[in-house]
Specification:
Two copies of one chain form a homodimer. The first copy, chain A, has 192 residues and is mainly alpha-helical. In chain A, 66% of the residues lie in helices and 0% in strands. The first copy, chain A, contains ten helices and no strands. Chain A binds a DNA duplex (30 and 30 nucleotides) through helix 2.
Chain lengths: 192, 192
DNA sequence: CTAATACTGCGAACACCGTTCGCAGTATTT
DNA sequence: AAATACTGCGAACGGTGTTCGCAGTATTAG
């Protein structure tokens, strides 16, 4: 608050003429991020493709604004107008998909959660001071001998993970989403 | 800190004779929770079953201690000794599974993240003041007419989600874990 | 053009937080 | 019995989000 006030060249007290509280401000900021998502991308004809695209946008937004992840923990996940637009859009994408309305609501929720999860994982790789030190610490612990599997894993995988994070995210969603609707057997692949 | 000191019948300053800082205390608490997990359950012979069981334990721990979820956001996810035991145990379970060591490390990480995610989802249903008010608010917004898909979804699914959260979690993992190791095609089902 | 009214910016202060300092009081060793 | 170490902790520091009340400035009314 004080920092924000300084950035605006004003005093902390002045902010409260425009927002009722810090939490309200954070809600507004979160909804502003929801507005950054582009819901107008043309449908690829396949709901899975569309939904994966939406999830990637959501993840990208969370990578752009790391503070958002620490916010979604907040009680109740208040939905601002733009967040509701997003929700409606996602449900629209899911309209041709199988599954009950309840399942679809849960899918959208899970989608958001996964976007946050992967965004955090990507951010943690960037920040999170000195991954070398962490690796060294792990190696030291493993070398004590009480953790054979960890030791073996570190021996094999000292090379940094070569897999593309984003591709992994996409693969995950493609497996996941059909499985969560239907029983996983009967879902149409949209052969346009 | 002050609250904890009061619960212990002492002053806030006294705590600092035993922990260096609040963060250090939280790390210790997190590792104490890792110690709650029972890593000695007999193997079912199938690594997938074992891993799902471990994930359920992890999720249950996070439901028991909701503050833990708000903690894992912290920088770097410091691994205490019990957390390392857990990691080694998980890698041990994954030893007979296909995939590279790097993939397995990522799987364990994802497993933890999903446990947190689902635990939060279950907790949010319990706490998160007055879900009725939230639903009413959503319904009111949907009734404005600008969100047809949301309206349709709410009309169909006004009944609370009948699906068992835990069963859903298990189904998800069973789909997910094999897909993340191997390409999803060639994974052995461990026929004892 | 003056007077009453509304709105805005914000310095000062409050309550709360994690944390530190230094001092009594108590154990432990010599 | 004296010196030394360790423990509990009141008081205070710097930080936070937030409120109060007062100046200063628009806006409206007469």
């Amino acid at each position: 608050m004080r920092a924000l006030a300084q950035r605006l060249g004003t005093g902390p007290a002045s902010l409260y003429r425009y927002v009722g509280s810090r939490d309200e401000l954070l809600d507004l900021m979160a909804d502003a991020v929801a507005d950054e998502l582009d819901l107008s991308v043309a449908s690829a004809g396949d709901w899975l493709d569309d939904l994966v695209g939406l999830a990637r946008q959501s993840k990208a937004a969370h990578v752009r604004h790391p503070w958002l992840a620490d916010l979604n923990d907040r009680r109740g996940e208040v939905l601002g107008p733009h967040a509701i637009d997003y929700l409606d859009h996602a449900l629209g994408i899911l309209a041709p998909a199988p599954g009950t309305a309840g399942q679809k609501l849960e899918v959208v929720g899970l989608l958001g959660g996964l976007a946050v999860l992967f965004a955090r994982r990507e951010s943690a790789a960037t920040s999170s001071g000195d991954p070398t030190a962490r690796a060294a610490h792990l190696a030291a612990v493993a070398a004590e001998g009480r953790h054979p599997h960890l030791l073996a894993a570190l021996k094999t995988a000292d090379a940094p993970p070569p897999t593309d994070r984003d591709a992994q995210f996409v693969r995950l969603l493609r497996r996941l989403l059909p499985a969560m609707l239907g029983q996983g057997e009967q879902f149409g692949q949209g052969e346009s």
